[in-house]
């Protein structure tokens, strides 16, 4: 059973300096061709999508395409999918959230909005090549709430070049003033294909020490938990009842389908993705060729453990042992070493990261990559 559907919109107004996601700048005609191809792919998978619980439209920047094209996509989804979707999310730039945009969300029952804010420091926003300013964020949140869309996520990034502890605390205070129920707070990763990676190699920007990054993370965790946000995943915090159901599908290693150029899927014990090339995607789908995918290895036991340990509650090792007819502590003997080092611990049959282990998640996850 496919629980969740991800739809990739690979278009942006401009390229952020930290981003290496599959995206491009494109003209209206190409965007129209892309939505036409998406429609064909969605209809092709219609029968597999009748028990969906969540939809997530991400990118790129879904709000970058004009309202006419967006409505074409929403209408297709309405025509082929179940009447009720528990959680229906779209990613947006704050400055794209207008009265007309929100009316369209209302019309098609999109009930969750995820905004890429990244920081409230406007000089940093300029360095990141973001197109919005703070007033767009506050206006967007006010408008969404006015129209009854209260399930709002804010994406923020910490460990930005030259970011101080004062800057971080200011971002946290401004976030809190928005009074929204969810925040995803990620440490900056200098991805190889990003502009910031290039600037770092040219020594045009400086990066924070590992000690400062750890301090920033702990400040974030302490601040948000003290202010009513449950820390439920390494980088995610929510008020009661507002955890991301869609992302929990990934972390609990359930089946999901991704459609669109570069979208990833896990279905019936197989992982695969559409090719990350918009032009080739449009050509193949337009010919009703849905076989052009790249498959990659899937290790059920390792993936279940690694993804589940991203959750603060961790994994029930008895359930895993029963499901996979194994003993994870024998299958992955290094887990015992990680417990001895204080990175993992056991509470009532659940294996989970310690507070210290949250800072060294990659060291923990490497154990499963060796399988």
Mean pLDDT: 91
Extract low-pLDDT stretches: none
Distance between the ends: 27 Å
- CATH C-level class of the largest domain is Alpha Beta
Helix content: 40-55%
Q: How would you describe the shape?
A: globular
Number of strands: 15
What is the helix/strand order?
EHEHEHEHHEHEHHEEHEEEHEHEHHHEEH
For the largest sheet, list the strands in their spatial order: 7-8-6-5-4-3-2-1-9
CATH superfamily of the largest domain: Aldolase class I
**Annotated CATH topology of the largest domain:** TIM Barrel
Main sheet specs: 9 strands, mixed
- Provide the β-strand percentage band: 15-25%
Which features does this protein show?
about 375 residues, alpha/beta, TIM Barrel, 2 domains, 9-stranded mixed beta sheet, 3-stranded antiparallel beta sheet, 15 helices, about 40% helix, about 20% strand
Provide a brief overview of the structure.
The chain has 371 residues and is α/β, with parallel strands linked by helices. The chain contains 15 helices and 15 strands. Strands 7-8-6-5-4-3-2-1-9 form a 9-stranded mixed beta sheet, with helices on both faces. A 3-stranded antiparallel beta sheet has the order 10-11-12, with no helix packed on it. A 3-stranded antiparallel beta sheet has the order 13-15-14.
Describe the structure.
The protein is an alpha/beta fold. It has helices at residues 28-44, 67-80, 99-107, 122-127, 134-146, 165-178, 195-201, 210-226, 245-251, 278-286, 300-308, 317-324, 328-331, 334-340, 361-369; strands at 4-9, 54-59, 87-92, 112-118, 151-158, 182-187, 230-233, 236-238, 256-259, 264-267, 270-274, 293-296, 315-316, 344-347, 350-353. The protein folds into 2 domains: 4-251, TIM Barrel; 314-369, no CATH class. The strands form 3 sheets. It has a 9-stranded mixed beta sheet with strand order 7-8-6-5-4-3-2-1-9, with helices on both faces. Strand 5, helix 6 and strand 6 form a beta-alpha-beta unit. It starts with a strand and ends with a helix. The mean pLDDT is 91.
């Amino acid at each position: 059973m496919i629980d969740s559907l991800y739809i990739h919109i690979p278009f942006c107004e401009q390229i952020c300096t930290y981003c290496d996601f599959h995206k491009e700048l494109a003209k209206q005609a190409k965007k129209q061709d892309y939505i036409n191809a998406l429609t064909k792919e969605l209809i092709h998978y219609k029968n597999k999508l009748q028990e969906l619980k969540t939809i997530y439209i991400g990118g790129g920047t879904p709000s970058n395409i004009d309202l006419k094209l967006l409505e074409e996509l929403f209408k297709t989804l309405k025509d082929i999918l179940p009447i009720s979707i528990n959680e229906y999310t779209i990613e947006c730039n704050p400055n794209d959230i207008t009265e007309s945009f929100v009316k369209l969300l209302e019309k098609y029952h999109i009930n969750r909005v995820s905004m890429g804010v990244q920081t409230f420091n406007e000089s940093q926003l300029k360095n990141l090549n973001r197109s919005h300013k703070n007033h767009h964020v506050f206006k967007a949140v006010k408008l969404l709430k006015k129209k009854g869309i209260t399930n709002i996520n804010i994406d923020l990034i910490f460990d930005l070049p030259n970011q101080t502890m004062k800057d971080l605390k200011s971002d946290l205070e401004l976030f809190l003033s928005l009074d929204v129920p969810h925040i995803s707070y990620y440490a900056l990763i200098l991805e190889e294909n990003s502009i910031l990676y290039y600037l770092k190699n040219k020594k045009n920007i400086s990066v924070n020490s590992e000690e400062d990054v750890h301090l920033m993370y702990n400040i974030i965790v302490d601040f948000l938990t003290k202010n009513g946000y449950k820390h439920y995943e390494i980088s995610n915090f929510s008020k009661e009842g507002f955890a991301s159901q869609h992302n929990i599908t990934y972390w609990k290693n359930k089946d999901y389908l991704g459609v669109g150029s570069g979208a990833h899927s896990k279905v019936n014990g197989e992982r695969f993705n559409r090719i990350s090339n918009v032009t080739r995607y449009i050509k193949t789908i337009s010919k009703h060729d849905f076989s052009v995918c790249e498959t990659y290895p899937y290790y059920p036991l390792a993936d279940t453990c690694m993804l589940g340990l991203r959750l603060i509650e961790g994994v029930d090792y008895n359930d895993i042992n029963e499901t996979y007819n194994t003993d994870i502590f024998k299958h992955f003997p290094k887990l015992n070493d990680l417990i001895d080092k204080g990175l993992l611990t056991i509470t009532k049959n659940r294996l989970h990261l310690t507070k210290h282990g949250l800072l060294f998640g990659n060291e923990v996850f490497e154990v499963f990559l060796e399988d």
